[in-house]
Write a structure and sequence with these properties.
Helix content is 15%, strand content 32%. The strands form four sheets. A six-stranded mixed sheet has the order 11-10-13-17-15-16. It is globular and about 95 Å long. The structure holds copper (II) ion. The site of copper (II) ion (CU) has 6 residues, from loops. The site of copper (II) ion has 6 residues, from loops.
């Protein structure tokens, strides 16, 4: 940050303008606009960069809106572009990310954005705070490859309040040559999904029902108080329990490689794919490191995103969940994954259909004892033979 801006920030003021050079790209750097899409999908992107570094321009518009946590609870979601989580942004190492953050005057609060992928000024949060009716542009250079959380961080208690109200998303900074497997060979995904996990702390009234509020700030004190117990009322993917199930299940085909990016801005999570695995896990979301291989369950430290890759070998229904099964089944942290293809009997087959029990436990135990007895007698005989000899 230059000294002039430092001085302004010191007084709690933020000065952004066309004349100010922060992390701006050299003149002549190509500028591309990235059309963001709602999760679990990713915007169109090249896995390996074509050409030199670019300015990747994205636009996030703050929307404060009522959303369903489940059939019985609603919450004032604080969102970027109307989704929980906010859209995935994709750029390459060495690119510049140019964020236009818009806070329409219909909103009630000041918002900003801390990019964990960015360097300096609290991840840009000092420089992109906007009150209702304002917009700001922040440009920063992506020097760390990986997947990273971004979230609103307007200061003080507003930081947890906004983040736990859904105001978080993720950005993927790909290596320029794309991803590599554990042996350093190119690893290209056929599909990529972004699963944003959200813990909610919705207050209940004396009647045991979830409270309703007319606008976000009305419920803030209650929600902060409820959150201090660190016991979420909901843990959901895509903002609502069941949002990624049924018709909205994630999809793939046998043989396809799928990249799963899982973010949790606030607390730990442990993704697991029931019926599958993670062939590759980029621990901590870092693409600077060689991925780990062969995980059953992987870890997402609170405040981070993690990427995992898997090539599907069997068709059918999978469940992608946080393998705290209480959170998955009772609080909402589960998604469906429907995979098309031909079943491989060698990999798995029901070799006897359910039917009447023909071998009793007693029979099995007797058999075990008989085998054990034979073994014991044999070894006893051998021992005796040795002594006699
Ligand atoms: Cu905010």
């Amino acid at each position: 940050m230059n000294k002039v801006v430092q001085a302004f920030v010191g007084f709690g003021l933020f000065c952004i303008g066309a004349t100010q050079v922060m992390a701006n790209a050299p003149s002549g750097t190509p500028r591309v606009t990235q059309e963001l899409v709602a999760p679990p999908f990713l915007p169109k992107h090249d896995q390996a960069a074509k050409g030199g570094p670019k300015v990747v321009a994205v636009r996030l518009v703050v929307e404060e809106k009522l959303m369903k946590a489940d059939a019985n609870a609603s919450y004032w979601a604080l969102t970027f572009n109307g989704s929980v989580p906010a859209p995935m942004i994709v750029a390459h190492e060495g690119d510049w990310v140019e964020l236009t953050l818009v806070n329409p005057k219909t909103n009630t609060m000041t918002h900003n954005l801390d990019f964990h992928a960015a360097t300096g000024a609290l991840g840009g949060a000092e420089l992109n705070k906007v009150a209702p009716g304002e917009e700001v542009v922040l440009t920063w250079k992506a020097i760390k490859p990986g997947v990273f959380v971004y979230h609103c961080a307007p200061g003080g208690t507003m930081i947890p309040f906004h983040t736990m109200s859904g105001m978080n998303g993720a950005i993927m900074i790909l290596p320029r040559k794309g991803l590599s497997d554990a042996k350093g060979k190119p690893w290209r995904y056929d599909r990529a999904y972004y699963i944003g996990e959200q813990d909610l702390y919705l207050p209940k009234g004396k009647d045991g029902k979830f409270k309703k509020y007319s606008q976000p700030l009305e419920g803030m004190a209650d929600m902060l108080e409820t959150s201090k117990g660190l016991v979420p009322s909901h843990v959901v993917f895509n903002g609502t329990a069941g949002a990624l199930t049924g018709d909205n299940a994630l999809k793939a085909k046998v043989g396809e490689k799928v990249l799963f990016i899982h973010s949790q801005a606030n607390r730990d999570s442990r993704p697991h794919l029931i019926g599958g695995h993670a062939d590759l896990v980029w621990q901590g979301g870092s693409f600077s490191d060689t991925p780990d291989t062969g995980y059953e369950t992987w870890f997402v430290p609170g405040g981070s995103a993690v990427a995992a890759g898997y090539q599907f070998v069997q068709p059918g229904l999978y469940v992608y969940l946080s393998h705290n099964l209480i959170e998955a089944v009772l609080l909402g942290a589960a998604a469906h994954m429907m995979v098309d293809g031909k079943w491989d009997n060698e990999m798995m087959e029901q070799t006897k259909k359910p039917g009447p029990i023909t071998s009793t436990a007693t029979t099995a135990v007797k058999e075990e004892v008989r085998n054990l007895g034979h073994g014991f007698l044999d070894s006893l005989k051998q021992t005796v033979d040795k002594i006699v000899d």
